[in-house]
Amino acid sequence: METTNQIVDLGNLLAFDCTHQLSSIPSSREELVEMCLQKGTELVQAIANDLFNLPSTEDVDGPIVKLPPPITKLPREKHLPKPKPPTKWETFAKMKGIKKHKKDKVVWDEQTGTWKRRYGYDRVNDDQDIPIIEAKSTDEPGEDPFAKRQADKKNRVDKQERNRLQNLKQAAKVGSLPSHIQLAARALPITGTQTAPEKLSKDDLGNVAGMAAAATASGGKFDKKLQGEKKPKHEQKYRKFLPVAEGKGTGSKEKEQTDRVLNKLISKNSHEVLNIGKAVTMYNLKKEKKHQNQKGRSASSTSSKLKPKGNIQKKLTNKKGSSKSNNFKTKSKRSA
Amino acid sequence: MMKVKTPTKGKIKRALEKRAPKLVETGKKTLILQGTKTSGVLNSVLTEIYHLKKGSAVRYTRKNDNVRPFESGGETSLEFFSLKTDCSIFVFGSHAKKRPNNLVIGRMYDHHIYDLVEVGVENFKSMESYSYDKKISPRIGSKPFIVFVGEGFENVEELKHLKEVLLDLLRGEVVESLNIAGIDRAYVCTAVSSNRVFLTHCALRLKRSGTIVPRMELVEVGPSMDLVMRRHRLPNEGLRKEAMKTSIDKPKKKEKNVSQDAIQGKIGKIYIPDQKVGDMKVINKSKGVKRERREAKLNRDGHGPASKKWKESS
Lengths: 336, 314
Hints:
The complex is a heterodimer of chains A (336) and B (314).
Chain A: E1 6-9, E2 14-17, H1 29-52, E3 56-58, E4 63-66, H2 88-96, E5 106-109, E6 114-117, H3 145-174, E7 182-185, H4 202-214, H5 253-273, H6 276-298, H7 303-306, H8 309-335
Antiparallel strand pairs in A: 1-2, 3-4, 5-6
Helix pairs in contact in A: 6-8
Chain B: E1 2-5, H1 10-19, E2 30-34, H2 40-52, E3 57-63, H3 76-85, E4 89-94, E5 102-109, E6 112-125, E7 145-149, H4 152-155, H5 157-170, E8 177-179, E9 185-193, E10 196-207, E11 215-233, H6 237-243, E12 258-261, E13 265-268, H7 291-300, H8 304-313
Parallel strand pairs in B: 2-3, 2-4, 7-9
Antiparallel strand pairs in B: 4-5, 5-6, 6-11, 9-10, 10-11, 12-13
GO biological process, one term (chain B): ribosomal large subunit assembly
InterPro entries (chain B): Brix, Rpf2
Family (chain B): Belongs to the RPF2 family.
């Protein structure tokens, strides 16, 4: 502050002459500008006087001066950051007088004789690494203790996530949510369903649209497109080519496939390859003819009582009928 | 049902952190935009303000028909733009028969309008009309000197308000330390009459004077203009109190164990607890050896450290 009527605010590099009055409003523009610049130079000099007298430190680029904080107060751009409310655990810990201790990131593992992480992948005393769990008298029969351990762990993780969400909600109420976190509302579950339906993403919707298009006979080729609708991502059939060369795993699939096709073909026509009913009748007929021929030659007069001719014929007709019906059945099956 | 949503990428997270309210604010950004109708003068005023503020300004060049800062309901899209661009000062130009070459300068608090000043632009002279030595032309983003002359800025309510708004618009970033070699510009505002302010932008020429303080010389580089006060709206008292809160009541945490040295620069002290080398459990896990060999070695003397312990105890 140089004189009484000059206010210098070094923090803003501002000078203000509050008493100066233009003596007489000049007639021409040039004169006015001239006068203003003259007064301006005076004030700039006043700022410079204060500025250059500040203690400075030499730098490569030039002398650097530490400015005092600005005197003229200007409003803030945004509100002051609000303090985060303590989490439920923090309030509890404070009540109980529990203090935080720093822990090492790695811990000596007695079992393996190595240093291992305290938390995370390949951690010390991992629940899932235990090979044997001793049975207790309280154990329920038919319960898998390993699966139970895993489920318990999952429950604990879920519970922690719920607690975190609760704390974040509290912080959001006060308006001190961290800048990178947003609490978004999830879609409400439809009454009667157990779980909340996941909100479909843009990609998901696109996939559904593609699937619906592919359901038409032309694969959606001639469908009317809506404005802004894109082509389905995959227009053709998904074709899989099996490896030509024989090998392990997928290599032997080629053989399997051909085997399957052959088996199917054979099983379809297997009844035609060997019809047992027909074969039996033919065999019986042949046998009978032989028999008749022999009897006709040796004793034809006495055989009238002993002849089992009618009976045999009856049986034959029966058998024929049954075989025929069998045939029909198979045919009907095929048609179905 | 609530879901925690966090950005997937670090870049987004950093951008959000930059926008979050801070204890000590860095600087206000300026949004420059226009209404449905502008004049040639106003166009060049807006672009030249943009040039002066380059680096901390956003220029919208489309017509905005629903921005009327003084009317109720006319500020919604302005507030949205402010939120979108993270600007807290806006300069809005419009040209009408009733108010030709109209410039509305306003400030935002929490992306809501804080106060407004409306001025008319007269006698505008653009940057191009000035001829000067280009060596002294101010560089982008340098900290300006600001000079206000005239008792009008003290006595007249409107001009007092205009002074505050102009200071906020022109001062740039609040800095703690300043490189003296970098000062090269000054704004001179003079209250010509009770409703007219002459504003000009000058370059500084530093001349030797024999003392430490150089002799300052102002060279007009433009733009220069007359601002005629029209309407203005002061912030309401509650909001003003809220916005004037500073971080002074909450001073910065003192930095421990760090000191500055002229030669070595930043020096930090580190306290290391006693290293208990005797208790250290060492395993040979060098990565230079192939894994099979390393594992074989581990297996061979797998109980190495344990056996050593045994020997000591026995």
